Amino acid sequence: xxxxxxxxxxALALAGCSSSAQQAAVQVxxxxxxxxxxxxxxxxxxxxxxxxxxxxxxxxQARIADFKGSCALNARSRxxxxxxxxxxxxxxxxxxxxxxxxxxxxxxxxxxxDAILAKKVFPAEVAFAAxxxxxxxxxxxxxxxxxxxxxxxxxxxxxxxxxxxxAELAYNRARLSRR
Length: 179
What we know:
The protein is 7% helix and 53% strand. It is built from 1 helix and 10 strands.
């Protein structure tokens, strides 16, 4: 499954992201933004409706398995286009009755101080074929960052992760603390 998404940087006041992240820099001449998967949002577990939170209540689990990126600068317009490819693995849980699922993931652009300048949440749907309980998906995104003055791509960071509810974030934090 391929999805093409786009986000243009805008001056927005948005909540910050955690700094605990798996780190990988995009290496392109001219200085690209650093791309980071926010550690505690790199996985999502969706449970069936109700209060049960054991393995039999899982509808869907997904994780950002890998990502790649590249960037190109349009010198005339001073816009930096960052192309990202996220590889997402999804697993159908035992409580999944209709072989479908959904999750949201985010892309946020931060400046050198880690202030979030723009954030966009993207929905994704999963449909498991009969006899298949695991899917590998690719999400392709293009981020456009208008550079001002002496700014370069390396002056920015791009954070990615799953957009989690408070309960999903607490679940992930509890799992991370047991490791």
